[in-house]
Amino acid sequence: MSNKEMDEKYQAGMKVRRRILGEAHVDKAVENTTPLNREFQDMLTLYGWADVWGRDGFDYRTRRILVLGTMMALGRWEEFVMHLRAALRDNFSLEDIKEIMLQQAIYCGLPVTNTSYHHLNAVIEELEAEGVELNWGSLKPGA
Question: Does 142 have pLDDT greater than 70?
């Protein structure tokens, strides 16, 4: 692959990364890039965001569902919270989050889902404090 093709692939990956995680998150990751982690950041952008998230086959909604469920299964709460926050900022519905959590309760266990609800509640509080309008759907408290 030529340098130009590699740069185009990198830019395509960054576009998807920014679309899914948000400008602020990606700007912070780029800002925190050092000579020590630069190759990892490049790998993440090229393979994770360009080659996987950027490929045809699944839409972003389906990929979000898979990532959230997988992060619950692995107990990778920092990644779960990052993707949860990004999904909710992007108008992903809390009804869908609830369904993911209930599905994972069966396959990953009740303690995992209990922990995920604690993280969800913290993210909801954080986003509402920032003025983010959440997509509650029929779950809107007091509705």
Answer: no
